[in-house]
Amino acid sequence: MGNAPSTRVQDVLLVGCDNSGKTSIVKRLLGDETRTTTPTAGVNLKSVALDDRTPLQLWDVGGRQTLRQYWRDYARQARPVAIIFVIDAADPRRLAEASTAVPKRLNDPVLVGVPLLVLANKQDVAGAIRPTELGACRKLGGISDRASRCLGCSALRGDGIVDAIV
Ligand code: G3D
Question: What is the position in ligand 1's atom list of the atom closest to the CA of 155?
């Protein structure tokens, strides 16, 4: 997400459907090994320093349908430097849902041009959609208005998360 050292905390917004693994990813980044998660009701704010560079504040926002209307409010509070869009790659049925729910909320003025990292989570599951199959994010609602990368990870195994973010 950039190489310039900074002491200012940088805010990162984590979005995606419920059950995609957002909270598990945050736990991995925090070094929390517990497997259990509870659905995020509003937003969980967590600070994490992955290396000696910029500390990040992660905004893990609830992904349930009824909560998505609030993403815009959190985005306006966070003014994020990056957005992480988490996909449950093991559940192709919800890809369509994710690909409409997230892109339409990226249009907010405070999110214009903010770089997007798409994490195709649950790569440990046999048959999970590979990041390359997501067509460099083009299947995800035709997002083409910003820099974006699409990478695979597994919050369960801890693979691919830190590398994707630093
Ligand atoms: P959310 O915050 O996006 O709603 P969670 O998602 O982090 O709460 O995860 C939802 C469920 O997916 C959890 O299972 C969690 O353990 C599981 N999960 C998260 N990441 C992975 C992964 O990489 N691989 C696999 N196989 N499962 C994962 P439960 O059973 O607690 O609902």
Answer: 23
